[in-house]
Amino acid sequence: MRKALVVVTTVLLAVFVFQFVFAAVGAFTRPAGDGAYLLHSVTGMAIIPALCVLTVLFAVLARAPGRVVGMTVIPLGLVILQALIAMLANSFTDASGSSTTLSLIIGGLHAFNGIIAVHVVVGVLREAQKLPVPGSVLTGTTT
Question: Among 9, 23, 27, 105, which residue's beta carbon has the most beta carbons within 10 A?
């Protein structure tokens, strides 16, 4: 299960990197229609949360220390916060749907929170890679 934890965390990290690319695609799509952020939205609302849940599950199955399991929960919380930040930013647009200064500041927090999530996932990956391999001398078990 340690190897599965490392693999799913690596995939999660890669998907987070692509999420930034998908945000840029949305930002630079001209004309910017409703579908400009489709890849970003689908990835952020479905794929990343599913991978976060799998990361927690594999950490538990790998019998990772409680601190590591706790670290795996943080990205899921940050993903939920991402959705809330996006909704809050959208709620501060003006009557015509145009951005306001406040909506842009809150939108900036969305990007900042994404950066924090990436750093947490990097930390989870590092901790997962340090876990002893079953059957190794460090675990005291045999295969």
Answer: 9
Is residue 141 in some structural domain? no
d(CA 120, CA 77): 11
The b-or-e profile of 46-65 (16+ CB within 10 A means b, else e) is ebbbebbebbbbbbeebebe
Digit-coded pLDDT (tens) for 65-96 = 999 999 999 999 999 999 999 999 999 999 99
Residue 142 lies in a domain: no
Radius of gyration (C-alpha) of the chain in whole angstroms: 18
Taking Cα atoms as reference points, which of 72, 41, 67, 78 lies closest to residue 54?
Answer: 72
Q: What pTM was estimated for this model as a whole?
A: 0.89
Look at the chain and report how many structural domains it folds into.
1
